[in-house]
Every structure is written in C-alpha cells, then in structure tokens.
Amino acid sequence: MLGVVVWSDAVTAGAVIWCDDHAQLAYLRGRENCQCSKSWPEVGDLVQFSLRKKSGSRFARAVRVLAEAVLPQIPKDLVNAASIPATPLRAAPHLRRVG
Q1: CB half-sphere exposure, 11, CA atoms < 13 A
Q2: For residues 28 and 34, is the Cβ–Cβ distance under 8 A?
Q3: Is 98 helix (H, G, I), strand (E, B) or coil?
Q4: Phi first, then psi: what are they for 37, rounded to 5°?
C-alpha cells in the first residue's frame, strides 16, 4: 500500500499515515517496522508499506520511503479542509406525472 505521512515523531518512533485506499489511517510504531534508509519518515513523505490489522486499528510495517517531502503541507491542508463548511445536499426533485 502507498501513503503519505501526516504526523511523525522520531523520538517516540511513531508516525501516522494517510493511506491510498482512503480508509482508516495507519499507525507506524517502532523502528523495527521501518526499513528506511534515513533516520525516520517525516511529514509529507510518500511511503510504501504493508498493513496489519489489530483491535480495529491498522498498523504499518515494512515501511519504506519512496519520495521525501512530496506533500509537506498536508497537515495544514487537512486542517483547512476540515474548517470548510459542508455543502448541504439538495432535496431530490419532485417528479409528477404529465399526460
């Protein structure tokens, strides 16, 4: 699976990944689950990984960075998108029989 890192903390060896299937986020915990050439994936990095589901959550493992800083602004963009009011759905048109 592919994803973009939306939060990362190298000190605690944790990260949150927005997955390309647009389902639940995946959590990266522990250096043993990261096969990164650099120290730790950073926000905005494009990563490839496999998933493990446990207790209703998704955990990333075998994480590899494919490209660095692809979307470094993604946390800010997500916060901005969340503040935009949703457009109300229009009611279905009322059809009537003619003739």
Answers
A1: 0
A2: yes
A3: coil
A4: -75, -30
